[in-house]
Amino acid sequence: MASSYPPIIRVIDLETTGDKPPAHAVIEIGWQDVALGKDGRWELYGEGGNRMVNPGRPIPPLTMAIHHIRDEDVADAPWWHDVARPILDPWPRRLALAAHRATFEEQFCTPALTRGADWICTWKCAMRLWPDSGGFSNQFLRYWRNPEGLVHERGLPAHRAFPDAYVTAHHLRDMLNQTSVEQLIEWSKAPGLLPRVRYGPDRGKEWSEIDDDSLATFLTDRDEDIRFTAQTELARRHSGGQIRQSLPAQDTLF
Question: Transmembrane ranges (predicted)?
């Protein structure tokens, strides 16, 4: 019976007590599926949903101020390991999991809970596919791109698990209709390729615009995304032109 259903990528969003497990824990998980249709196009699929989770510890005021989930809201909720696996592993239809800045979700959604699923990071992929955007947060992309079919009220409030997953799913759908699942996974496994310089005298410039001495200062930066981007630009200069990226049916990036 499972074969009668389309293959899906499940978009995940978490709200947590903080960003460093095991000291911090999940308090809400939201999801929205994106499915491959018979016409070969990807579309949102199903209603998605969310589940509250008892984190087993108090929720700090700092994070409560972001998502507005209180201790009393999760006091009677189930534990993470009782909730996670059925949501993260809708086997056998799931091709991959996705999240915006997926490295955060991956800390809590471990391979044991996901059956070793591949992840797509829509933040990293957005920088590859839409480098002209003025920002790459989930909500900035929402208003910059205005994705077709996104119901404004359904994507609110921001910083709650289902609305954020719902917004991310629209970005993912458009990415999948622009390039392949395999390419998105490949980009997601690498550090982020930043379209513009983040700080310093060259802040806001494209990497191709800065001189060699300035570029050299970024090659040993503590931020792996900056290092990776500087190294990629250096390799492009040494190759005498653009570094091409393989894209099924498309071959543009920089």
Answer: none
